[in-house]
Amino acid sequence: MRLKFLLLVVMLSIVRLVQSQTVVDIIVNSSDHEILEAAVIAAGLDGALSGEGPFTVFAPTDDAFNALPAGTIDALLNDIPTLTSILTYHVAGVNVLSTDLYDGREILTLNGKVVQVRITPNGVFINDAQVTVADITAENGVVHVLDAVLIPSSGTSVLTS
């Protein structure tokens, strides 16, 4: 009986630890998001995104960033206003789980522009970026992993190589 109690306490502690992570903690602790982590810190958004929220983060992987044209990442890290615009285009100030998504839904991002949800037989897309992992929940929101970088412009919604 004592062993069962101890196991229960350990399991509850692990659940509490996982739930106490912020969206930034999820990004920082992901080996697939090192470039996003560096960008968020360079733009000074780590403090705000560690706040109360709620936030929905559409998180491009390192592979997504590496698919950008050569020199793009370095150029963005040296142009903080443009970097901030791009990063805030990946964040909504609401908690949007996969169960809240429907085809054609528009989600207002923190940079003031909307992204559009598309649901096809091939998957769920935010603009033209596919959601590869959904609903990584945090205490202040949720993270959805994307296979491309969203770019807030009138003509292009995803920057790829």
Q: Would you kindly provide a brief summary of this structure?
A:
With 161 residues, the chain is of the alpha+beta class.
Structure, described:
The chain has 161 residues and is an alpha+beta fold. Helix content is 35%, strand content 26%. The chain has a 7-stranded mixed sheet with strand order 2-1-7-6-5-4-3. A two-stranded antiparallel sheet has the order 8-9. Residues 5-13 and 155-161 have low confidence and may be disordered.
Describe this protein with a few key phrases.
single chain; FAS1 domain; globular; 9 strands; 7 helices; two-stranded antiparallel sheet; 161 residues; alpha+beta; disordered C terminus
Q: What is the fourth-level CATH superfamily? A: FAS1 domain
The share of residues in extended strands comes to 25-35%
Shape: globular
Named CATH architecture: Roll
Helical fraction: 25-40%
> What is the end-to-end distance?
59 Å
CATH topology: FAS1 domain
Order of secondary-structure elements: HHHHEHHHEEEEEEEE
Low-confidence stretches: 5-13, 155-161
The CATH class, by name, is Mainly Beta
Kindly report the spatial arrangement of strands forming the biggest sheet: 2-1-7-6-5-4-3
> Tally the helices: what do you get?
7
Q: In total, how many beta strands?
A: 9
The overall pLDDT, averaged over residues, is 88
Class from secondary-structure proportions: alpha+beta
Gyration radius (Cα, Å) is: 17 Å
The largest sheet is: 7 strands, mixed
How many structural domains are formed by the residues? 1
